[in-house]
Amino acid sequence: MPDPRPAAPRSKRGRLTRSADFERVFRKGRSFGNRHLVLHLFPRDDADAARDPRVGLSVSRRVGGAVERNLVKRLLREAVNEHVDRFPSVDLVLVARPDALGVAERDGLAGIADALRELVDKAAPVVPSPDAQS
């Protein structure tokens, strides 16, 4: 029987926490969207560029109440862990649209993961490959 626990949480270093970091990604980065999510990304070129990507989540009250927003955030975190290695030295912000709740309730992790996979495939040509970083 598979372990029902989600993957280990990302370290604090792997998360976007400051408002200024979110603003920089929104203003200077690229964005890719679909009906359920918007993926904003900003390639880093600072001293931390060789480090893992940093991820931030934004799930507003338009998505639903606290319980619904937390469900969407949990599923997003789990789905992001599958794709995060494809984005070396990048700051990512995932914004959930109101339709994300419907997908989360109807299809669970599989639905959110599919929506995210679609965006990752759109964004892949824009992001430098890990081999180019070396």
Automatic annotation (TrEMBL):
<dbReference type="GO" id="GO:0030677">
    <property type="term" value="C:ribonuclease P complex"/>
</dbReference>
<dbReference type="InterPro" id="IPR014721">
    <property type="entry name" value="Ribsml_uS5_D2-typ_fold_subgr"/>
</dbReference>
<dbReference type="Pfam" id="PF00825">
    <property type="entry name" value="Ribonuclease_P"/>
</dbReference>
<keyword id="KW-0378">Hydrolase</keyword>
<dbReference type="GO" id="GO:0042781">
    <property type="term" value="F:3'-tRNA processing endoribonuclease activity"/>
</dbReference>
<dbReference type="InterPro" id="IPR020568">
    <property type="entry name" value="Ribosomal_Su5_D2-typ_SF"/>
</dbReference>
<dbReference type="InterPro" id="IPR000100">
    <property type="entry name" value="RNase_P"/>
</dbReference>
<keyword id="KW-0255">Endonuclease</keyword>
<dbReference type="GO" id="GO:0004526">
    <property type="term" value="F:ribonuclease P activity"/>
</dbReference>
<keyword id="KW-0694">RNA-binding</keyword>
<comment type="function">
    <text>RNaseP catalyzes the removal of the 5'-leader sequence from pre-tRNA to produce the mature 5'-terminus. It can also cleave other RNA substrates such as 4.5S RNA. The protein component plays an auxiliary but essential role in vivo by binding to the 5'-leader sequence and broadening the substrate specificity of the ribozyme.</text>
</comment>
<protein>
    <submittedName>
        <fullName>Unannotated protein</fullName>
    </submittedName>
</protein>
<keyword id="KW-0540">Nuclease</keyword>
<dbReference type="InterPro" id="IPR020539">
    <property type="entry name" value="RNase_P_CS"/>
</dbReference>
<keyword id="KW-0819">tRNA processing</keyword>
<dbReference type="GO" id="GO:0000049">
    <property type="term" value="F:tRNA binding"/>
</dbReference>
